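User: Good morning. I'm curious how adenosine-5'-triphosphate would be positioned relative to this chain. Could you predict the structure with it bound?
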Amino acid sequence: MIVLGVESSCDETGIALYDTQHGLLSHALHSQVAMHEQYGGVVPELASRDHIRRAIPLLEQVLAGAHIDRHQIDAIAYTQGPGLAGALLVGASVACGLGLALDRPVLGVHHLEGHLLSPLLASEPPTFPFVALLVSGGHTQLMRVDGVGQYALLGETLDDAAGEAFDKSAKLLGLGYPGGPAISRLAEFGDPSVYQLPRPMLHSKDLNFSFSGLKTAVLTLVKKQTTNLCEQDKANIARAFVDALVDVLLAKCLTAMKQTGLKRLVIAGGVGANSQLRNALNAAAQKRRFQVYYPELEFCTDNGAMIAFAGAMRLQLKPEAAQRDYAFNVRPRWPLNELGI
Ligand code: ATP
Ligand code: MG
Ligand code: FE
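Assistant: Good morning! Here's the predicted structure, ligand included:
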């Protein structure tokens, strides 16, 4: 079965073809980062309009890349939520329009399920069950995953997401948008002994997180400087921020592994691309003898491949979940726990 995946929940248009027999056939992505950069964040209306411009050319590109004709597509999966309503509507209408034209079933996919299953696209994928840390721009959650659709929430952030903390702190340091990769690169040159930032909820015993205080601590540090921040100061602050955030993520992952007794930890979402986090997790996994898995770097942030893949898994599990009426509705807010099998 060949499934076309359409992702348009935020500022990336992602299109991909996944074949349940041969794996990922091709994928293409257009990031709108350059367009939103000057505004310091995503402008929803601009995002929707750009998805409209990009979707069909990207579709042509993946069909050509996979050397298939559009009539060979067996089903279409699109991101139904959560995300920006207008942006989601573009992907949904493209998917349903194609489904209608090609007479193929269409399935709405949960964006976070896409992220969560993205490590399974890697060359050495984890097997179920596993603990998953989902660290993206809008979410920070620890989950126990027993299979497709079997997700038990173990803990989550009470305020900002990890990616959001990266982006907001980067903005305070004048690093542009999105700030995650920039702050991470800068932190490499930072001296860890200059500043110490708080590790929120490190000892809270539960598996919840809180990152808004960390961002405020960065703000306080920046405000304290009497002169303009020099590059080394910025690097030192970036380092203090990354060290604090990674410490908390690592500690909570270790607690989750202990609590569940599981031996596989899976990281998903944009912050999963972070090298400091990966280094810390790899070292801990080796010491404590568990396995840690990541998505391919290009599939950490939003992409169409994870949506095609999640759609294919769902369709295999429950073919009747697909719709044939092509009446689409998106779900900008959609808690993952409302998603059954
Ligand atoms: P959600 O999936 O929760 O709706 P999103 O789709 O915006 O949110 P992702 O695309 O998974 O989130 O990830 C984007 C986030 O990842 C941004 O906050 C970005 O700064 C962060 N990020 C990307 N690369 C890195 C990196 N190397 N280090 C730290 N953060 C990073
Ligand atoms: Mg994005
Ligand atoms: Fe995402």
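The longest strand covers residues 23-31. The two ends are 20 Å apart (CA to CA).
Let me know if you'd like a different ligand tried.
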